[in-house]
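Researcher: Please translate sequence to C-alpha cells.
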Amino acid sequence: MYYHLIPVPISIVLTVYYFIIKNKGDLKKNAIIQPLTTLVAIIVAALSFLHPNVNPAYTTWILVGLGLSFLGDIFNIDMRNDRILLAAIGVFAIAYTEYGVTFTVFSGFQPQDWMLAVLFVLLYAILMVLYWPGLGKFRLPVLLYGLVMPFMVWRAAATFFGNFFSLTQSILVTAGTAALYIADIEYGFHRFRKPLKLIIGPLLYEGGQLLIALSCSYFLK
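Model: Translation complete:
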C-alpha cells in the first residue's frame, strides 16, 4: 500500500544535490540530476497504480504533466541561453496548464473559486509590473507564461471546495503547485530584475513535483 513512499528518500537526496550543483553552475551534473530527480517523481506517481484506492485516470493525467516537465528539464539545463529559456518556457507552460486542467476536469468549478481568482489576478499584475523593465524580448512569452502559473495554483487550491479530492490530496497539490510558482517567481527576479543566488527555487521546483506526484496515492476509500 505504501510502495509510492519508497522512492521519496531518493528524491529528497537528489533534490538537495540538485540545489547544490544548481548554485555552483555545474551544467554537466545538472544535465543529469535535474531530469533524474523529476524521473523519481514520475516513479512515485506511477507506483500509485499499486494503491487500492488509485484513480487510474487521475494518475495518468498527472503522469502526462510530469512527463512534460521531464522534457522541460532537458531544455532547461542552461537558462542563460535565451533559446533554451524560450524552449523551457514553452514546454513548462504546456505542462503547468495540463496540471491546472487536470484539477479542473476532476474537481470542476465551485462558487468559491472566483474569490481565489481575483487574488491570483492581482498577484499576476504585481509580478508583471515588477518584471516589466527587464523583460526585453521576453515580454510576450513571460506575459503568457505568467498567466499559466497562477492558473495552475488557482485550480489546485480550488480542489478544497470540491468533492473529488481528499483533504490530503488538496493539501499536496496546492502546496506542490505553490512551490513551483514560488520557484519561478524567484527565478523571475533573478533573470529579469537583479541576478541573485537561487536560495529556494531548486528545492521548491523538485519538491513541488514530488508533492503533486504523491497526490495520486491519497484518494479516500
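Researcher: Any highlights?
Model: The chain has a mean pLDDT of 89.
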